[in-house]
């Protein structure tokens, strides 16, 4: 196992640590006595896990440590981290006045990932090469997801999380449509 892949595995291992700390903070916030140490610890674990995504990619390219296992695990690690954060920040409030991600946004994030996975499965079943190229809408979608997560976890701007969620939802849907279009192009004879 390459060092780059070990970084990816470490990211996967940080997901339950983040989730536990975030849930503990959410429970304390629900009880009316938020333990800020949990919130900050959860935030720093999330930042470390998110930063490791760029680090493992850099290490793999810089030191020629690309591997099939790393290529397989990297997107899984990314999805697990983001999905865990979205779900925890939906089901547990992170501040007063129901400060959390709205349920419809979490449902949209899950729907997008399910549609993409179903599309990949259909392409594989048709014995076609799955060559989905990253599109700028997917990159903006990922960035906007991180803005939503930071908005909720940091609570710096006292505007409801619904606002960044609505903005991110546009790119969630747009990128989902773009990936569907790419899948349809692959399926053409």
Structure report:
With about 190 residues, the chain is mostly helical. The protein folds into two domains: about 1-80; about 100-189, no CATH class. The protein has helices at about 5-30, 35-60, 70-90, 105-125, 135-155, 160-185. About 30% of the residues are buried.
Please give the structural blueprint:
Layout lengths: L2 H28 L5 H27 L5 H24 L11 H23 L10 H19 L7 H26 L2
Helix pairs in contact: 1-2, 1-3, 2-3, 3-4, 3-5, 4-6, 5-6
Strand content: under 5%
Q: From the alpha-carbon coordinates, what is the Rg to the nearest angstrom?
A: 18 Å
Q: What does the largest sheet look like?
A: none
| Order of helical and strand elements | HHHHHH
The low-pLDDT segments are none
Mean pLDDT: 90
Q: In total, how many domains does the architecture comprise?
A: 2
Notable characteristics:
189 residues; mainly alpha; 2 domains; 6 helices
Summarize the structure.
By secondary structure, this protein is mostly helical.
